[in-house]
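step=encode ok
step=design start
structure_in=
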């Protein structure tokens, strides 16, 4: 027998065997524990901004009001509608003076989800989403960072009856949306939840269902980061292209714009309150904005199958103006943008923001890089949201129909068709500058170079 295996006695040999086995077990447990700690570490926590929870990035509650421009909001100078909950958000957080959308809802939502301007995506047809980009959305990006994702309210990118799994394809784990151009969104609503039509909401007011769904989603996912997208039905009017008019409200007509604004503000308050009630306020960023300018009219009633519209006029900084939705003027593209969060700098900022900035901003909050091949047009606007490195952009962009678009600074706007406006002196764009000052001419040259670079 080899010497190193020799054992002077059976008892000693057995004792030594037990001791060796004990040491091996202890070391094995230590190494398994260490390996577990390594496995639980992730770049997500390593990239967390200083001063924030090192284990998880912030939750994101994104609230998108429908057909609500700055002229409808009290803290922006509107006085026709009470908006105490939104005004309170602005007082608590950061209010942007220069937030811009597309002039109508579909292109704004395309830009929000992809971070790209619609013309770079081939001008998707109304009510569609480019199939080649279904995996390149803000929801998919946040899922890579460990977020749970959900949307409630309005989808608008497909007829749900034709493609009930479309929302999931674009990266949302859960959804609760009305059947766009299929049924009512308010009274006796037709609601798809996770691709299936609900049969228990006929006696409900749609916006209450959407809020309850998202509150429940946040409650169930409060132990992990989440992206809750409240795509509001309010304050868009009812669908008018069905075989029969959709049901009136209890007052015997469709809600007036004043009534819709009141209900919109109340439900913003309700979902914001839920964040605090769930104990999530210390790690949740709340963003409130609008998808385009205020509606120019709304459907008030239907008689003998014929819809009757009423114009929308609002007092804005003491002047009565009509809603500018679909126009490339301020009335159609200047939207409220308010951000609240535990590390968000309060006050008012003149930073420029457009909807292409949302995807890269949320990616920075989540600590996940945006793939270079996604070719996003936006940049992060989170420089005032905490300890995030981001530069203010020098121009914003919006595009309308027939290829017309603009780029602008806080003061000057240049259209692709050549018109150049000083929005401080001429906010209604009455007279294009043909002989601008030297300073204005320098800005015009820079904006033209931006249009050339964009290729619009």
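sequence_out=
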């Amino acid at each position: 027998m080899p010497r190193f295996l020799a054992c002077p006695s059976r008892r000693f040999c057995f004792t030594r065997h037990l001791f060796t086995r004990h040491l091996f077990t202890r070391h094995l447990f230590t190494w398994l524990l260490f390996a577990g700690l390594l496995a639980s570490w992730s770049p997500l926590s390593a990239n967390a901004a200083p001063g924030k929870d090192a284990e998880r990035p912030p939750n994101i509650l994104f609230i998108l009001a429908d057909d609500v421009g700055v002229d409808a909001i009290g803290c922006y100078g509107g006085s026709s509608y009470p908006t105490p909950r939104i005004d309170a958000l602005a007082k608590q957080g950061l209010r942007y003076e220069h937030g811009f959308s597309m002039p109508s809802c579909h292109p704004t939502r395309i830009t929000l989800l992809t971070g790209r301007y619609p013309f770079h995506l081939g001008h998707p047809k109304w009510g569609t989403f480019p199939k080649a980009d279904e995996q390149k959305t803000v929801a998919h990006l946040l899922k890579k960072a460990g977020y749970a994702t959900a949307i409630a309210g309005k989808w608008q990118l497909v007829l749900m009856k034709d493609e009930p799994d479309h929302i999931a394809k674009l990266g949302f784990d859960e959804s609760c949306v009305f059947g766009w151009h299929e049924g009512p969104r308010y009274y006796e609503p037709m609601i798809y939840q996770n691709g299936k039509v609900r049969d228990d909401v006929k006696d409900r007011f749609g916006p209450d269902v959407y809020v309850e769904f998202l509150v429940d989603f946040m409650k169930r996912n409060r132990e992990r980061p989440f992206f809750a997208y409240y795509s509001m039905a309010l304050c868009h009017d009812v669908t008018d292209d069905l075989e029969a008019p959709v049901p009136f409200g209890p007052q015997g007509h469709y809600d007036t714009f004043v009534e819709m604004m009141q209900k919109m503000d109340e439900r913003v308050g309700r979902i914001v309150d839920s964040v605090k009630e769930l104990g999530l306020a210390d790690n949740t960023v709340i963003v409130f904005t609008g998808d385009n300018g205020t509606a120019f009219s709304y459907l008030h009633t239907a008689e003998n199958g014929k819809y009757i519209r009423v114009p929308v006029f609002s007092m804005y900084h003491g002047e009565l103006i009509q809603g500018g939705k679909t126009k490339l003027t301020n009335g159609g593209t200047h939207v409220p943008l308010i951000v609240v969060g535990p590390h968000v700098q309060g006050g008012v900022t003149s930073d420029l923001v457009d909807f292409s900035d949302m995807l890269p901003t949320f990616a920075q909050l989540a600590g996940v890089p945006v793939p270079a091949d996604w070719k996003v047009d936006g940049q992060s606007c989170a420089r005032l949201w905490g300890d995030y490195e981001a530069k203010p952009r020098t121009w914003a962009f919006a595009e309308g129909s027939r290829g017309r678009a603009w780029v602008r600074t806080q003061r000057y706007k240049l259209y692709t068709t050549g018109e150049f406006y000083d929005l401080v002196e001429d906010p209604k764009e009455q007279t294009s500058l043909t002989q601008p000052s030297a300073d204005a001419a320098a800005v015009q040259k820079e904006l033209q170079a931006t249009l050339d670079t964009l290729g619009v």
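step=design ok
step=annotate ok -> The mean pLDDT is 90.
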